[in-house]
Amino acid sequence: MAVTTCLTWMQEKILQNHFGGKFNLLYKASVHKFSLEHLLQKYEFGIDLTGRKLHISANTSKELGLLQCESISFEECEVFQCEDILNKRKMEEVTELRESLWSSMRTYKPYGDLVHQIRILLLGPIGAGKSSFVNSVKSVFQGRVVHQALVGSDTTGISQKYRTYSIKDEKDGNSLPFILCDSLGLGEGEEGLCMDDVPQILKGHVSDRYQFNPMKPITPGHDNYVDSPLLKDRIHCAAFVFNVNCIEYLSDEMVAKIRRVRRKLIECGLVHLVLLTHVDSMDLITKDDLIDINRCLPVKSQLEAVHKALGFPLSDILLVSNYTSEWELDPLKDNLILFALRHMLWAADDFLEDLPLEETREMLLAV
What we know:
Elements: H1 9-19, E1 22-28, H2 29-32, E2 38-42, E3 45-48, E4 53-56, H3 58-64, E5 71-73, E6 78-83, H4 88-106, E7 118-123, H5 130-142, E8 161-168, E9 175-182, H6 197-202, E10 210-211, E11 237-243, H7 252-267, E12 272-277, H8 297-310, E13 317-319, H9 331-353, H10 357-366
Parallel strand pairs: 7-9, 7-11, 11-12, 12-13
Antiparallel strand pairs: 1-6, 2-3, 3-4, 4-5, 8-9, 8-10
């Protein structure tokens, strides 16, 4: 049977941050028996395992702010080894995973070869990190930090145009089999993406560089309106992007908008996922937590919050850490980005596979 610590996640995390490393449990008295007369005796501390007493001198008690007593009873004693989490072996594993994910993206082919490139639409509140995710994906495949999509921090957002970004492979310069589509963010009141523009985007009627007008949707006859879109022009997967630190601050109006957009996606048969950004900025979350971010207690809490507030299944909520201020790539961040991208491509495959046979045949004939 595995030996586990009595420390809560929060207690262990606080200690890890203080000592700067990972705690490995070496000894647990209730499991390994209270058999040693003294496991530790150093300076003014003394531990009597047989009597289950911790002896502390008066001076030390005063310095630690403890009650003035010569001994304290305890029920459990645990001994840990503190070691660097991101050691050489662990980083080699991280790098190997990155190469595996990166390779699978390069060799990916959309379901049935129905299209050459998957189109992924990014939706979400203004400032959630949609454009930053575009830059982050491009960075991973370019081998350097890229800042092509304009990013801002003001409440009106920066992305005012509908942009479609093809991703280049640094190794051969060829376009990868997916396109990221960046939209105007959802805003409060009349601000942000016009709801009537959503189905037009999903069906492929909107072309690159369309200037959004929150008060007026695109209509036939507009220079950016595509009259007869093909399957390749349509959206094949959508992802809602949220700042993980802002979920609890979403207004009722914003939640209602998100639900309206979800209904439009469902009507079009689109599988849609969630990207939670800024996970590395959460309290007590450090770089090494990105190795297994889903197990972190604060992250689990936010996943549940998204599920409860917006109704997304927990399995459809993905975590990413965008490149925002860095100048060098980080394999830990790369893996989260690639992992999320892989799930989007799988979702797109589900959409293509579920297309009616008649519609698929018409689309292939049109190509």
